[in-house]
Amino acid sequence: MDKVVLATGNAGKLREMRQLLADVGFEAVPQSAFGIEPPVEDGESFVDNALVKARHAARGSGLPAIADDSGLEVDALGGAPGVRSARYAGEGSSDEDNNDRLLADLSGVPPERRTARYRCAIVFVADAADPAPLVCEASWEGRIGTERQGSGGFGYDPLFLIAGSSGLTAAGMPDDLKNRVSHRGQALRALVAALSGRASGRT
Q1: Would you state the pLDDT for residue 203?
Q2: Stated pTM of the model
Q3: Residue-range domain boundaries for the chain
């Protein structure tokens, strides 16, 4: 199996990404195995932050690296929390804190105006100085509920009602189904396809 370092300390992301990568023959090693601390994420976009994390992990491990940056965009909030999704309620905030703030900020907003989407940018760098990183992006449409539902997932999943479903949240989906349809699952599959294409081009 090809070995790559995953530039994330988020347990939920790590679980999803390792499962998806294992299915296509990649051994994913978390950056914590190399004692790598996360860098400051000060990019203005999900792609910017993903590249910062991937190059940092590649530099610290000596391995190719994969990193994603993802978050929630809520239309009624002008696209917030966006790149600040993990710290929406403040630095060091928990998922519960962030969900509480989201519900408070949307208080009184009717269902038809609570449209939202998860976005994900995922990148691969062959090394820290890779001049041509692979970048893939995807989104997952839905809306924000008024109360938490479901016990799976992480982040805003208990509030994220999936478009076209009858009230199902991302936290109520089986992991295998979520990995097929989520923003991260879509972006990661696109990345794997791009990696396969790059390898074919070299032969």
Answers
A1: 43
A2: 0.86
A3: 2-202
Number of CB atoms found within 10 A of residue 151's CB: 9
**How many other C-beta atoms are found inside a 10 Å radius of the C-beta of residue 176?**
10
User: DSSP code of 184?
Assistant: H
Count of CA atoms in the C-beta half-sphere (13 A) of 28: 24
Reply yes or no on whether 69 is catalytic. Answer: yes
List Cα–Cα distances, 174 to 13, 28, 153, 169, 178, in angstroms: 15, 22, 9, 11, 6
The residue annotated as part of the active site, out of 2, 42, 69, 130, is 69
CATH number, domain 2-202: 3.90.950.10
* Mean pLDDT calculated for residue range 26-34: 90
74: left (phi over 0), alpha (psi -120 to 50) or beta: beta
pLDDT in tens, 60-95: 999 999 999 999 999 999 999 999 999 999 999 999
Distance in angstroms (rounded) separating the CA atoms of residues 203 and 198: 9
